[in-house]
Every structure is written in structure tokens, then in C-alpha cells.
Task: structure prediction
Amino acid sequence: MTRVLLVDDQALVRSGFSLILSVEDDFEVVGEAGDGAAAIELTRELRPDIVLMDVQMPVMDGIEATRRIVAEDLAKVLVLTTFDHDEYVFDGLAAGASGFLLKNSDAEHLVEAVRTLAAGHALLAPQITRRVIEQMVAGERLSSAERNPLVEPVETRPAQDPAPAGLALLTPREREVFELVGTGLSNAEIASTLYLGEATVKTHVSNVLSKLHLRDRVQAVVLAHRVGLV
Result:
């Protein structure tokens, strides 16, 4: 049973999400919150598996609430918004969200999204574009230069950052899988590309995340871009 906390400042929206999820045998809606601060407290108290998080809310917005929930490793967060803007995707990913979905997605996609996160995967919705990922990487490089004035300006630095130590631990096949994960492919698509069984790909992905100390596929995508594999 996947325990879900609903966070949105509109009661009707929460009721709609609750109705959609409650009819599924494998979901239990354990609570609701109307702002980010309340969401953090309820997440600490109820320990849900997944938090469905709105972005624009009073008291504390969903991005800051996501950042704090992820920092305490309390639950996985699926960010929901009516705004199809890169800035929301960027901020949500930077805060550590494991998924991003528009509120106008149909019930089937919502259910699928929650199941995807519950299964230990990240949800890379079509709105999470390469441009957003590249913006994240560029932002990290800029922040590094701002913190240390001895670092070369962003314009003159190498296009590829040094690979993390864990990258050297990957087998050739795991590296192939990592590169394909970085392009946003699902396990099924990777299996088709490499002529492997989907279960085998799942094992490789798990090994990659473990060796690189990554929380989920979202972090894997960002790292693949940062080290220049994609």
C-alpha cells in the first residue's frame, strides 16, 4: 500500500485527487495540507511514501516545502502545477523533487505517476526538457564560480566537469545504461535499444544509482549532462 499526502491550497483540488487515488486498491490517502508549512509537519507526523505537492501556496510555497522534505529524507515528492513553465520544473528539480506533472493531466497519468515514484523511479515528464537540465548544470557551474573567485569564469571553463569517482566503478554496460538514462529513456526503451531484458536493465539502473550515490533517475539525468555524457 502506497501512502499519499495531498498538498494544495484549494480544497476542491485535494478532494479531486483524493477521489482519483482512493479508488485504487494500492493507494491510501493519509492526509491533506493547504500550505507548505503544514505539509512538512504532516509529512513528519504521518510519514507518507509520496507527497503530491502544489507549487503556489500561502505561508510556504511547494518548492521550499519540497526542499525541506527531501533534505530530511521524509518522502518522495511529486510536484503538481497548472503552470507549464521551465522555472517551475527547474526549481522543483533543484529542490529534489522526484517527479513533475501538470495538474491538467488526466486521472490515468496521475495514478501512473504516483505508481512510478512508489516503485522507486523518477518521473521525467515531457515538460522536463533538455534546456531545463542544461539550465540546472549551468547554474551549478555559475554558483561554483561565484563562491570561489579563483575559479575560471563560466565562459572559459571546460564544457565537461570532471566525472565523479563513482563513474570509474561502472562496468561498460552500466555506463551505456547510464548514458541512455541521461537521455530520458525508460527501462523498456533502454532494453529495446540494447537488446536486453527489462529486468536486466532495471538491475543495471539500480547498480548505477548505487555506485554514483544518486537518489533517483532525475539526479542521474542531471549528472549525465553535468559530466558531458549527454
